[in-house]
Amino acid sequence: MAATASLKSSLRLPSPISDFSGAAVSVSAQKSRRSWQPRGARVQVSAAADSKNILVMGGTRFIGVFLSRLLVKEGHQVTLFTRGKAPITQQLPGESDAEYAEFSSKIQHLKGDRMDFEFVKASLAAKGYDVVYDINGREAAEVEPIIDALPDLEQYIYCSSAGVYLKSDLLPHCEADAVDPKSRHKGKLETESLLTARGVNWTSIRPVYIYGPHNYNPVEEWFFHRLKAGRPIPIPGEPADLQHLRGQVRHLRRPRTGVREGWRVP
Q1: How far apart are alpha carbons 138 and 199 in whole angstroms?
Q2: For 6-23, how does the pLDDT look when each residue is reduced to its tens digit (9 = 90+)?
Q3: Which is nearest to 216 in space by CA: 249, 241, 256?
């Protein structure tokens, strides 16, 4: 897994998947790990003291399904903004009936089309959210109505893509690497520029391909097709070059909440 988080604040992500250089944090990992334990002590925040009113743009397809559960478990008031074409809740593998029932009773839903900018402005302004997790935004024009509606927003956490980087043989990428303005993800770069220009406290997560339960993009098939055809599986020749091609969705959700909560480093 490799990702980059651009933080316009003093927030810091935990080791072992990050390097600390102040407000701007680059996150990259080359080895899989069974647990994710920060070197520094995590700031413990009780739900009663720091419960936030959180809006998740999307949240019923893949990443947001896991993210929203974690946010609800942490005691936050969570609303999913979707078009209502998919069920708002679905029971996940390994989730007990009791856990599913509790989540279903707490999650809230705001039905609408994010391309209806006037509806977005009116409906969000009436709710006054503290934090926005934007899982499905692609263009800056889709984000501007949200920040217009929420002038007191504490943080905007945006799902970008590692595809914004200029192609390079030197991997993994870090935040300072050159980006490709002609990338098919250029709308995400333009969104980051908009958030900066508007003075929003924002964080951009740039993951590579992601796998896990409920994935709608079968990124693993490439390997199985080669196995079925009896073809070799390419493996980097040097241990230092060994990298994850993807990140597991359950692991990705934790940095997304960590960038909001804040971490302190010894």
Answers
A1: 20
A2: 333 333 333 333 332 333
A3: 249
User: Domain span at residue 36?
Assistant: 7-261
Is 231 within a domain? yes
Total of domains in the chain: 1
CATH classification of the domain holding 17: 3.40.50.720
Residue 88 φ then ψ, to 5° = -70, -30
DSSP letters spanning 181-216: TTSTTHHHHHHHHHHHHTT--EEEE---EEESTT-S
Tell whether 1 is covered by a domain. Answer: no
Question: Within a domain: residue 154?
Answer: yes
In a domain, 190, yes or no: yes
Q: What is the dihedral of CA 172, 257, 10, 265, to 10 degrees?
A: -80
Which candidate, 243, 193, 174, places its Cα nearest to that of 21? 174
Kindly report, residue by residue over 236-256, the tens digit of the pLDDT.
Answer: 655 555 455 444 445 554 544
- Determine the 3-state secondary structure of 110 from DSSP: strand
In contact, 227 and 177? CB cutoff 8 Å: no
